[in-house]
Design brief:
The complex is a heterodimer of chains A (344) and B (224). Chain A is built from 15 helices and ten strands. Chain A is of the alpha/beta class. The longest helix of chain B has 22 residues. The chains are: A alpha/beta (344), B alpha/beta (224). At the A-B interface, strand 4, helix 9 and helix 11 of A face helix 4, helix 8 and helix 10 of B.
Chain lengths: 344, 224
Amino acid sequence: MTGLERVLSAVQGNVPDRPAVSMTLSLYGAKMINAPLKEYYSHARLYAEGQQAVSETFDADILFTPFTLASIGEAFGSQLVFFDTHPPNITVPGCKSAERVASLAKNPLIQEKSVHYHMEATELMKKYNNKKAAIGGVFLSPADLPAMIMGMEGWLNTLLFEKKEANIILESMIEFFVNTANAFFQAGAHLLVLPMAFCNPHIVTRSMVEKFLIPVLKEAFRQVEGPIVLHHVGLPLSPFLEQLKNLPNVVGYALDRSDSFSKARETLGTTPVLLGNIDGPTLYRYSPEDIMTRCQRIYENRKNDNYFILATSGADIPLQTPEENIHALVKTAAAYGTERFHEA
Amino acid sequence: MEENPVQKLVEAMMDADRDLAQDVLVNYAEKKGYVEAASHVLEPALFIIGEKWESSGDVSLAQAYVAAKVAGDFMTLSVLNEPFSKDYDDKKGIVVIGNIEDDYHSLGRNMVKIFLEKDGWVVHDLGNDVLASEFVDKALEYEADIIAVSAMMYSTAMNIIKVREELEKRNLNNKIKLVVGGAVFKLRPDLVEEVGGDGTAPNAIKAPKLFNEIYQNLRKKEAL
C-alpha cells in the first residue's frame, strides 16, 4: 500500500498492510538535503526536494507542506526573521487596523503572494511524490490567520475590545481562507492541516469560541473542497473538542502529548481519525528502543481503534534528532501496529 | 444589598469586560480612594483569578489579558489621581525582563511586566530576541535583583541555558536570580530546571508573589 492508501484506510476504518504514521518532518527535510533554512523556507523547489528525501528515507506516509506560515504575515507587511535551527518567525506584525487587514486580505494579489511559496511547494511535492504519500497542506483557520498578520497581541486585543473591527477582519478571512484552502487541494494536497490556537479555551473564553469563532469556522469549512485535520498546535485539544466536533469536512484531530485518546473518543465518537501523541520536539532525547516502547504503549491504548494514526505531537521534529529515532516510529508501526490488527 | 466589589470585578474580568471592570474600580476609588481600591478590590480580585488560573485552568489567556489591561489602566488612573500614593512609591526590587534570543512572542512578557509594576517592581524591559550576554550586561547596569526571561516555544526556551551559563561565568549566581516563564514552562515543568531557572510562576498574575519570595531570600542571604 502507499502512504496515501494507509491514511485513507484510517479515515475509513479499514485494515492497512501496516498502520500509517504521521511525522512532522517539515523542518527535517532541510537537514536531509543539507539546505540552509533561509534558502529552504524561501525556495519551494528546495522544500519539495527535502520532503522527497524525507519520503524516501523514512517511508513517511504523510508529507507536510511548510509547517510555517510566517510568509503569510510577510505578504501583509510583517517582518520575518530566519533561524539556523527552526522555521522563520515574525518579528514585527504588518497590520494594525482592521480596515487595512480586511482590504489586503481581499486583494487577490496579496492572497497569491502570501501563499505563493506554499502552493509552489505543494505542486512540486505532488510532482516528486513517487511513493504516493499523502500530502498535508498546512494552513490556518480564519480564527488564526489574523494573528499571523496583526501579531498575537494585536488580534487578541481586537477580539476582546473591538468587536466590530474583529467581525470585519473575520469576514475578510473567510474568503481568503476558502480560496487558499481550495488552492491547496488543486495544487496536490490530499488533506488540509489547520493548527488551532485561537479557538482554544486556554487562549480565548469559551463564550468567544462558541458565539463568535465557531460560526465563522462553520461558514468557512463548509466551503472547503477536501478533508480537514485540526491540529493541537502545542496546547491540549481535549478542552475544546466538544466545540470543534461538528465542524464541516473535519475528518481528524491531531492531539497533544497530554491529551487522552479515550476522552477524545468519548467526545468525538467512533469515526473521526485521532492522530498522536508521541512528543516530536523531544524525540531526540530518547534511544530508538525507548521510542519504540513509547509507541507500543500508544498502540496498546488504541488497540481496537482502526481510526487511529500514530503521530508525533507538538511542533517540528528538531534537526538534532538522530535518524534512527525517526525510523523507530515506522518500525514500531510495521511490527507492533500491524500485529495489533491481526490480534483484533 | 450592594454586590461585593471584588466579586463584581472578578466577574467583569472573567467576562472579559474591561469597561465594566474599570467602572467597578473607579466607583470604589471615588468613594474610598485609589490606594484603597487597589488594595481592597484589585488585589483580591487578581488573587482570585490567579488562583483559578493555576488550580482549575478555567481562566483563559484572554481573561488574564483583560485582567492585565484593567490593572494597567487603573495604575495609570491612580498615578493621575493620587500621584504620591505610597502604594506605588514602595519599590520592591529591580528586574530586567525580555524574551530570549530568537523568541518574538511578547504577549506573556508584557502581562508579567504590568503585574510586576503594579506590585511596585522597577522593570526594565529589554524586548524580544535578547542575547544572554545582554541580559546579564543590563542586569549589572541596572543593578537588577532578577533577570526574567520569557520563551514561548521549546526550541527557544533552550536558549535560556546560555543566560545561566553567562551568570555562572561571571560568578553572579548568588547575586542575580534567573526567573523563567512562558507557555512552554507550563506545559513542560521539568524545563525550568533544565534551562537553569531559579523559579517560574504558574501564571502572569502570580509572578509578583514569586518575585517577592526570591527577592526576600536574596536580601536574607545578603544580611547573613
